[in-house]
Amino acid sequence: MKILLIKLSSLGDVVHTLPVVQDILAAMPDAQINWVVEKVFAPLLTQVNGLGRIIPCELRRWRKSFWTAQTRREWRAFKMDLQTDSYDAVIDLQGLTKSAVVSRLAKLTAAGQRYAMANQTEGSGFEAPTRWAADVAINMPPHSHAVARGRLLASEALGYGAAVAKTTPSYGVKVPAAQSNRARAAPETIAFIHGTSRANKEWPLQHWVDLGQRMMASGHRVLLVHGSAKELGTSQAIAAQLGPNAVLLPMLSLDALVQQLGHCAVAVGVDSGVSHIAVALGLPHVQTYNFDTAWRTGPLGVLNQVSVFAQPNPGVDAVWQAWQACESAAR
Length: 331
Description:
The chain is an alpha/beta fold. The protein has 15 helices and twelve strands. It folds into two domains: about 1-165, Rossmann fold (3-Layer(aba) Sandwich); about 175-330, Rossmann fold, CATH 3.40.50. The longest helix has 15 residues, at about 315-330. The model is unreliable at about 180-185 (pLDDT under 50).
């Protein structure tokens, strides 16, 4: 069976959808699974076991320059790439107009069908064309975790049972055994993931410094992670106060960042795509929230991965205690 998954963006949403691939392969080992995604996030998918073709697009950029000759050329090339294969099932996991367009463009086999969500779930985007474009629209529980929502949609579309969506998710991210073993043997390395695309999700800089000082006093090393020039500046400001035991990563591609995080033993992060990658890697992880949305996007079903919520921000003591609990659970 040939299956096309459509989840275009953002980084955190793509990470939350990764367990769908492993669910399908567990139920249907011979399935061939392709995935359409925004080009900037495609390197992440190269790190996922079991995927076939990764079909990149740049819809975000193209819609800002749809009138140019270059965009028209790139759009035609994307359609040719998308329509190279015919699919038995096309599953729109995004639920937006742009993903509905991609779904309609994809080619079906004679008995193939398009599947999508029939309704919005709390806190997530949804646009009516996703339902109109589908041959089968599937009702979703209105109060759904982001991981469970995608797993449930795929399980209902492909008929292998909704119970799968309630099991502990497997993300299928490739981390070589040597890296995994080395990470567990070197618990002194803790990734600080402070960057987020939304400023109102940030944890105060001084909190990172205070937490880092506690980590270092207990014999740990801090690895500072960043994905933009602005985030690099924050990493440099934290490192300046923590001293030589704070390690500044260079700017890395997503696939290289995944592998670098695989060397770490623990992560502390805000609600961000990179932080969700740490969850997918199975790292003991504390995720800070200043909005009460951890039920929808936070770590799910693993004892050594927890979220800490408070307003205006969780305090250093709360995060420190949560990290100690994660460390204990990981032993």
